[in-house]
Write a structure and sequence with these properties.
The complex is a heterodimer of chains A (about 300) and B (about 375). Chain A has 6 helices and 11 strands. Chain A is of the alpha/beta class and about 300 residues long. Chain A folds into 2 domains: about 150 residues, Peroxisomal Thiolase, Chain A, domain 1; about 110 residues, Thiolase/Chalcone synthase (Peroxisomal Thiolase, Chain A, domain 1, 3-Layer(aba) Sandwich), CATH 3.40.47. The longest helix of chain A is centred in the C-terminal third of the chain and has 19 residues. With about 375 residues, chain B is α/β, with parallel strands linked by helices. Chain B has one domain: Thiolase/Chalcone synthase (Peroxisomal Thiolase, Chain A, domain 1, 3-Layer(aba) Sandwich). Helix content of chain B is about 30%, strand content about 25%. Chain B has 10 helices and 17 strands. In chain B, the strands form 5 sheets. Chain B has a 6-stranded mixed β-sheet, with helices on both faces. In chain B, strands 2-10-9-5-8 form a 5-stranded mixed β-sheet, sandwiched between helices. In chain B, helix 8 links the parallel strand 14 and strand 15. Classes of the chains: A alpha/beta (about 300), B alpha/beta (about 375).
């Protein structure tokens, strides 16, 4: 019995007729994911949001609770029977989606929940004001449940490399600005800083973590028939495949324009994959910290 | 991490619940228990009189009479969310009798993530630097965010992982530097109807809780459960301020209090039923600390509806203010230090937080009593 991916979906800004925000993208991805799995929102027991850059840089409530209300996942407690939905946010940068899957895997295994969704979306919350924000506007969702006959996610590996923390950082800080006629002579501004050396270092960290996972699971990396690797920088998956000895044709490639996808990147990678064909898939995400999350999935 | 699985059956419960009579079969055979509670409360105090004297407008708001909050502690030079969390984590480790390298999981659940003054850090997560500062080399680390229910959510997750035998020991920690929301609100609040009124109740604090697998037969967490009533998700929102450094929070305080009490009643019953307990079998109820008046009114309403009341309701908000995600564990740490608990006492922590999050954790304090210098 294992945690399996029932469906995944993404939503991008350019296909939407409305002026989107990260919330709309998350809502759209979540709805699309449920639709693909022929599930209704009421069936959801658990909703985890792993997105970082969302509307108004909201710190409270959990962004997941807004998504839950928008998609109609048991927003109120009617008298009588039924089951509710529990929502919260995971904040682990580009590794957030895999971290959310890891937590959902635990709660599915214990039976505390039966159907879980992990959602992530990012969009510049301050267009024209923020500095260094280069991630595409995209949302992603992954729907998970427990199934007796399949292994699903069989192992997770996490690692942090704090010695490289300065290579990728983002913060909100007050910038004095009297020139623009702002009433309060300044504003809180989002800044994202990614050093040129981040990509190479993330690759090193990801490769070592993936090898640790393989060793712990006695997995020959040559057996991996699908590599889904993300680090918010273009070319990362191909470079990691070369490093690990995974043939190039077994790498899930993101759609055009989404190579820099951030927290939703694993869902973006899943878009190019036929889920039933996944036999031994290796997920690897790297992000600020440097933090690496890796997971082995057996379809 | 080790993995174990069993067949899944959610039953007819509204909350995601673990433990107790109706526990799902996959929940595992282990019991988790609190083994160390830590807190870090800044020395500097700010009285409600001082705060209200700093308002830009003449408000005529009698905040102390309305909330019962006399003062709150606020950060001093060099303190922020990170230092508060770190101090609390070290305090918890000291009382738990274990080392940071014994932690399998480290969860940081702060709403406020300020480093170096009022710079809000989004990435890397705070857990990376805390893990390094503590030396928790083996721990899987991540941040989560669930408003004032953040630490309780972390407890819910750790309890799940420990019960299944996936991990042996974990910590959830939070540092809340939120008094700055009060300073921002003081510049804008005009009347008692202001949606920023609740910001004036906030205080700074860090808290940490360490959970571990209990020896066979030993008491621990009896029931842990959560749900989100998201139809109320927009009643309290916070984001970076428009008027200066830090954040602003806008709350429909009356409505959120009303729905929190009304809607939590059946959920509280559900958790008690799962544990096979009556409300008066709870020795100490620790609710989220918003205001002394709101707590008294809310607990009276809940007790009247259920028909019986817990033996004691813990109130620390009068001296500490609302310290957001840390309130339950700062209160627990204080009561442990004051020697209020006896072995065998049963505690219920009740989260009612923006979202609307409703969370319950029921446990026995046995193993904690005596670790804080008060053997009974």
């Amino acid at each position: 019995m294992g945690t399996i991916i029932e469906a995944s979906a993404t939503a991008t800004a350019h296909r939407r007729p409305f002026a989107p925000g990260a919330l709309k993208l998350a809502d759209a991805a979540a709805r699309s994911c449920l639709e693909r799995a022929h599930r209704s929102a009421e069936e959801l027991d658990l909703l985890i949001n792993a997105g970082v850059y969302h509307d108004r840089i909201l710190s409270e409530p959990a962004f997941a609770s807004l998504i839950q209300e928008d998609i109609g996942a048991n927003p109120g407690h009617p008298p009588g029977a039924g089951h509710g939905t529990f929502s919260f946010d995971v904040c682990n940068g580009a590794c957030g989606l895999l971290t959310g899957i890891h937590l959902a895997d635990g709660l599915l295994a214990s039976g505390a929940v039966e159907l879980a969704m992990v959602v992530a979306s990012d969009m510049d919350p301050q267009p024209g004001v923020s500095e260094g924000f280069g991630f595409p506007a995209v949302g992603g969702a992954v729907l998970l449940s427990a199934e007796d006959s399949r292994a699903g996610f069989t192992a997770f590996q996490f690692a942090t490399f704090p010695e490289f923390a300065q290579l990728f950082g983002s913060y909100v800080d007050w910038q004095e600005d009297a020139r623009r006629g702002l009433a309060h002579h300044g504003r809180n501004v989002l800044t994202v800083e990614i050093a040129d050396s981040y990509a190479a270092q993330a690759l090193e960290c990801a490769a070592s973590t993936a090898r640790e996972l393989a060793a712990a699971q006695t997995l020959d990396l040559g057996e991996v028939d699908l590599l889904l690797a993300t680090a918010s920088v273009p070319g990362f998956a191909d470079a990691l495949a070369r490093r690990l000895g995974v043939p190039a044709e077994r790498v899930a490639a993101p759609a055009e324009g989404l190579a820099r996808a951030h927290t939703a990147a694993p869902a973006v990678a899943l878009e190019s994959v036929a889920l039933p064909a996944m036999r031994t898939a290796l997920f690897v995400s790297a992000g600020a910290g440097i933090t690496v999350a890796a997971a082995l999935y057996r379809g | 991490m080790e993995k174990s699985r069993a067949s899944v059956h959610r039953g007819g419960r509204w909350m995601a619940l673990e433990g107790g009579a109706g526990s799902p079969p996959g929940g595992g055979s282990c019991t988790s228990r609190f083994v160390g509670i830590g807190a870090s409360v800044p020395e500097r105090r700010l009285s409600t009189d001082e705060l209200m004297a700093s308002t830009k407008h003449r408000t005529h708001i009698e905040l102390e009479r309305l909330t019962g909050i006399r003062e709150r502690h606020v950060v001093g030079e060099g303190e922020d969310s990170h230092t508060l969390a770190l101090g609390a984590a070290r305090d918890a480790l000291a009382h738990a009798g274990c080392a940071a390298e014994d932690l399998d999981v480290l969860i940081v659940s702060s709403i406020s993530r300020y480093f170096g003054g009022l710079r809000l850090r989004l990435e890397p997560p705070m857990s990376v630097s805390l893990k390094e500062a503590l030396g928790a080399a083996r721990a899987v680390s991540f941040d989560l965010s669930n408003a004032c229910a953040g630490m309780m959510t972390g407890v819910f997750i750790l309890n799940d992982l420990i019960r299944q035998g996936r991990i042996r020991r974990g910590m959830v920690v939070s540092g809340e530097y939120i008094s700055q929301l009060g300073h921002n609100a003081a510049r804008e609040v005009r009347t008692v109807m202001s949606k920023q009124l609740a910001s004036l109740t906030l205080g700074d604090a860090g808290a940490a809780a360490i959970l571990e697998r209990a020896p066979e037969g030993a008491p621990g967490i009896e029931v842990a459960g959560f749900t989100t009533l998201s139809e109320h998700s927009r009643l309290c929102v916070a984001f970076p301020a428009k008027i200066g450094r830090g954040a602003s929070m806008y709350t429909d305080a009356r409505m959120i209090h009303k729905v929190a009490i009304e809607d939590s009643l059946p959920l509280l019953r559900e958790a008690l039923d799962q544990a096979g307990l009556e409300f008066d079998e709870i020795d100490y109820l620790i609710p989220h600390q918003t205001s002394a008046r709101a707590i008294k009114k809310g607990m009276r309403q809940l007790s009247e509806s259920i028909g019986v009341a817990p033996k004691h309701v813990v109130v620390t908000v009068d001296e500490l203010g609302n310290t957001a995600s840390t309130t339950h564990f700062v209160a627990l740490r204080r009561y442990l230090e004051e020697g209020r608990f006896a072995e065998g006492d049963r505690v219920m922590c009740l989260s009612l937080a923006s979202g609307l999050e409703v969370g319950v954790v029921i446990f026995k304090v046995d193993q904690l009593v005596g670790r804080y210098g008060h053997d009974h």
